[in-house]
Amino acid sequence: MSNKYFAVLRLATVLVAASFISQAQAKFQQLHNPTPQKVREVIAQSGPAVLLEFCGDWCPACQRMAPIVGQLNGELDDQIVIIQVKLDNSGAIKQPLKNAFGFSMFPRFFYFKDGKQVGSQHGSASKADMRSKIKSYLGV
Q1: On the CB side of 27, how many CA atoms lie within 13 Å of its CA?
Q2: So where are the chain's domains?
Q3: Is-contact 30 91, C-beta < 8 A?
Q4: Is the whole-model pTM more than 0.85?
Q5: 27-138 sits in which CATH class?
Q6: In this model, does residue 120 exceed pLDDT 70?
Q7: Could you tell me if 82 and 29 are in contact, meaning their C-beta atoms sit under 8 angstroms apart?
């Protein structure tokens, strides 16, 4: 067999693998310092049940919530989309998002059902509390 055949076969394998990876990661999206409009676009394109989190690596409460959000993502991957908006500790970047979504504390969670906000919460919470809110707000 020719090198051309193997090159095509390798390319096909890479494309199939990339397709599976993108499908697996489609339920968890991470945005870094986006505009309010970009966040709204991602929510609109994400499906019927969305958990939106505003957080920052500089935030101790956000760091405490990271493993809980990760566990929920693993457990609910086929039922909800989690959008994590990571913000730098810069007022110029944070303020437009805080104004657009109406929050002041981190982490901040918003629940969207069919593109409409149905609930929110701020600060640290237990996994059981988060799971209860997801069930209450999103029916999952």
Answers
A1: 15
A2: 27-138
A3: no
A4: no
A5: alpha beta
A6: yes
A7: yes
pLDDT value at residue 22: 36
SS (H, E, C) 45-70: HCCCEEEEEEECCCCHHHHHHHHHHH
Across 110-138, average pLDDT: 96
According to DSSP, the residues that pair with 54 across neighbouring strands are 85, 108
* Distance, C-alpha 58 to centroid of its chain: 18
Work out whether strand 81-86 and strand 49-55 pair parallel, antiparallel, or are unpaired: parallel
**pLDDT band at 119; cut points 50, 70, 90:** very high
CA dist 47 → 10, 67, 113, 134 (Å) = 33, 24, 8, 15
Looking at residue 2, its pLDDT comes to 52
Name the strands in the sheet holding 116-122, side by side, starting at the edge strand that comes first in the sequence. Answer: 28-32, 81-86, 49-55, 108-113, 116-122
Interstrand relation of 108-113 and 81-86 (parallel, antiparallel or unpaired): unpaired
Residue 73: CB partners within 8 Å, gap ≥ 6? 27, 28, 82
